[in-house]
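2024-03-11 09:14:02 DEBUG pipeline.ingest accepted 1 chain
2024-03-11 09:14:02 DEBUG pipeline.ingest length=293
2024-03-11 09:14:03 DEBUG pipeline.predict start
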Amino acid sequence: MTNTTAQKTTRPSGKLIDFIAAGKNPSRVLGATERWLLAQPADVSRRSDVIHPSAMIKSDWCHRAEYYELQGVAPEPRQLTMKQMLTFEEGHRIHDRWQTTFGNMGKLWGRWRCLGCNFNTVGLKPSSCVVCFSMDMKYAEVAVESPKHGIAGHADGVLVGFGDPLLLEIKSVGEGTIRWEDAGFWLANDSDFKKAWANLKAPFYTHIMQAQVYMKCLEIMAEGTMNSYPKEAVFLYESKVDQEVKEFVVPKSDFGIMELFDAAALIVKAVADQTPLDCNINGAELCSKCKAY
């Protein structure tokens, strides 16, 4: 009688599947490049000990999942495809271009970092670093926070010299942006980007809400000081198709965001009390975000 041992095989999944698929690409350049990009470590620089404005303004913001993330039980970093990486990189490039322009105009207020010695200074763009005298200054945006609500993030900037101070929000807009932000508007414009862009007369709802959270945080940060804070936000939408730009100005308003700040305060208290919150999305059934916890 012969004993046989069955070998257990494990099928590749997730990131490994993408990596293998990239290797089968017949391209001489892009296949190898995609494999290199997929092999890079996932970006884990995003803080997990604070509530991010970009998360809390979304309709699927789960208070229970946020509680566990603040406890340090963060989900696995999401692996991006090469297309997604290039899309994000293009967005960063557009931000840098506008911030560089406004900085050189002497209109952009915020934190500036010296690329020579990493010294940070707050204000308008300095002509050179006060420590090492390097003229290579990089805009590090505007920190916004409300510690009592556990909220922290970075706004694209604050503009001065165009009347009252303006919170700056820069958005690169493509077909995917419109489909994601307002599917009804996209369909109403026959799924045609040029038509939808021509009919775009106001910022998207989530963009407005995020700017309102930023302005509220800046108001809270200014409490008890003589510092001013933006009471309007300017949105610069740049078309990914032809670089046409639209400008929208929206006044500060607490409407619709105070409930978000109240929820954030409850989450902070729950963390302090070590008491998990119920899922506000799907109750006892839990939602896709908090089921993992």
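2024-03-11 09:14:41 DEBUG pipeline.report The chain has one domain: 43-109+139-285.
2024-03-11 09:14:41 DEBUG pipeline.predict end
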